Amino acid sequence: MTNKFFPFVLFLPLLFAASVTAAETIESADLTLVVEKIGETNNEGIQLVSLTDKATGHVFCSAPQRPLFSLFICAPPERKELPVLADSGWSKTAIEKKGNVLHLSWKGRTRITGGDNITVEMQIAAEPTKPGIEISQTAAAGSEKISLVNIRLGQIAVRDFGADTKLFYPTGSGVVYANPCEKNFQRSTGYPGYSVPMPWCAVWNEKRPAQGFRSTNNIGLYVGFHDVKGCRKVIECIAAGKRDNYAWNGTVSFWATIHAENMYEPNNRLNIGGKVVLRTIRNDWYDGAMIYRDWVRKEASWYPREKMNENGRTDSPQWFKEHCLWAMYRVSPEDMIPAMKKFRDAFGVPAAVHWYYWWKSNPHAKDGPNFFPYDNDYPHFFPREGFKAAVDEMQKDGDIFIMPYVNGLLWDTKDKGMEDYLYTKEGFAGAVKNADGTANLHSYGSKESDGSDVKLAHMCPAAQVWQRKVRENVLRLMNENGTKAVYVDQVAAAVPELCFDRSHGHPLGGGYWWNDGYRAIFNKIRSDLLNPDLQDHPLNDTVKKQLQSNPNALRDRVITSECTGETSLSIVDGFLTWHHQQANQIPAFAAVYGGAVQMLGRDYRAGKVYAERTVPGWKVTIEPLACRMKTAESLCFGEQIGWFVPTIIDEADKFPFQRKAVRLRHQVRHYFYKGEMCRPPDLPCELPTVTADWNFYNSPLITGPAVRTGCWKIVKNGKTQSAILLFVNMSEESITSRFSVDLSEIGLDKNNITIRQIGPEGVEKTLEPAALTQPVVFPAESVFAWEIMVK
């Protein structure tokens, strides 16, 4: 009889079991896992037999199962990859239980030349009194004739919950997908970067009780890869619908591929620093976020635990932690000054601008000194006439902040118009190299003056030439031009690459060196800002003298980057969240990292104008409802609001709502740098919805609840001091609804609280605690908050 599965596959391809021998079992407080040796000789492989929820007896998965791993090898110097699976073809396998750990081993592939000494070791650990099962693994080639290329880890196939199935996948802010098997869900993305900032997911059956609120009795499984240094991974999730000719009907495959250090080199090893972690959840995605957050705070190398206190990040300037409003503009210095002053005055709060086209081309380029190339002539940035004067003028009163754009990944192969200026002489040495020694080149749609595609080399962050160039660009803007911030594009967005250049000093192919390289770049920059090393400063003598006379001049500077790749968190102050633009988004990233990093901005631009890269200023032409939906999410997710073109203040159908949202955030801004995100208040499932075209690439219409909610709390000495509940009605109609919030989960006692309502202009009224259980009126296009404080 064929079972129907919903595989939540933590990593691998499907195969059927042969004959079976005795099984071994290991138990945690919440899970029971069984493995067994299989094969005609009872020694050819090992497979996962079952995974069971102890509290309910629910079997998440049972045999037949996917292999526990798929190892890919090659025979150097050939690079043709050959798969080696966990459940067949081995000379010797063993399962041994020692205390709370199962030790699994595989050795020898007699049908592979030189494969006699291939070994794989796996440990499956669990403690009966603690939740969760952890799986760790290593592999070795054991021969000069064999090279390990990559491995897929720890697959599990979870039974389908049917129409009630919900899948959390960590794309962008995080997205929840309903009934993914029915919809043939597919994702294949790299970590860490633009699409997958965190390597964990969850699956559960979400049923709503009769009263319409969230249940706390769901059955679900958290699956995460807890990797202290966050190496490059490719994470894939594929949901297959019902197909009569397949035995894995109704399944989801989810795995991560990790590449070996010194791949294609003989006799290498795969030392996998991370662990596959399995945990039960009883509610929804937020439970999974708390599991991952707890691990991150304790162990992740990128979490700035030593720089966190009750005032948030101690290495981020106060102005930035409190900031609420962003513009994004591409105009000349003379046009930027009046635009930003009007923008600031209209909103009535401090404003910052993410400034593109502040630079001009190399003055000697054939395109001329007034050509403003985007994704062209990088990494050479030359300020336009009047740039520094404009920066000084706008920043003189302390309520406008300038953040110019530079790129942290690309070097144009024709970096002076149509000429090879410094690429071959300097840049090529630091470029990411393919296995054949060629540079890894990319085109992003920009054109040379002859109409050909601009070809840009991706640069290796471990290369000294690139480390110095990025540092030089950032420090020149902050020192010589006085900007309060610099945005370094692609650093937190680009997935780490495989580089095979020995001269860079890193292992070939996979490993942790990509993250280490960027960490070296930005740790040095941040050190220069706090304690300038004048002997090793890449700037001119005048700047050095200025720093020498005032060493504290740079302590209020900020570094940000694109998107939210988590391994960049400790080296930047903020992430640009322009890409949080999908249906069914939830604030999973904020739940994990709220307070530890500032998030800023959404993309409010129109699709047509978006493609016209030479337009000096992009107008906001998407519909007002789409603008309201993006801002509502941004506020509730804890993001600094904006990336507005400053002319939005002249758009009567958009500006009033945006002003209310920004000013409310300003009223409660301390929650987003001192606090942490709680589970958002739950609204009944019959709440009205709104639909609008978000105009982001080729995205369809986005539908979501008409009222967005959020919750943040401030904790001191381990106790909750206060919490803020955020409510935003995006619709043009008043809505009345109940809501549910678990005060005990927040750490508050309903018998010892006071409540006040806060609006865009401050405190509006006080409320009785009973208001938390009564229907609430959300006026049309309203934005307000309830602050709950301990008496």
- Give the integer mean of the pLDDT values: 89
How many helices?
14
Strand content: 25-35%
Unreliable runs: 1-21, 243-248, 607-620
End-to-end separation in angstroms reads 61 Å
List how many beta strands DSSP finds: 45
- Largest sheet: number of strands, sense, barrel closure: 10 strands, antiparallel
Share of helix, binned: 10-25%
**Could you say which overall geometry the principal axes of the C-alpha atoms support?**
globular
What structural class should be given to the helix and strand makeup? alpha+beta
The value of Rg in angstroms is: 27 Å
Detailed description of the structure:
The protein is α+β, with helices and mostly antiparallel strands and 791 residues long. It is built from 14 helices and 45 strands. The strands form ten sheets. Strands 7, 8, 9, 10, 12, 13, 15, 16, 19 and 20 form a ten-stranded antiparallel beta sheet that branches. An eight-stranded parallel beta sheet has the order 34-33-32-31-27-24-23-35. A six-stranded antiparallel beta sheet has the order 6-5-11-18-17-14, with no helix packed on it. Strand 39 and strand 40 form a beta hairpin. Helix 3 packs parallel to helix 4 (387-395) and helix 11 (624-636) runs parallel beside helix 12. The longest helix has 18 residues, at 513-530. The chain starts with 19 loop residues before the first strand and ends with a strand. 50% of the residues are buried.
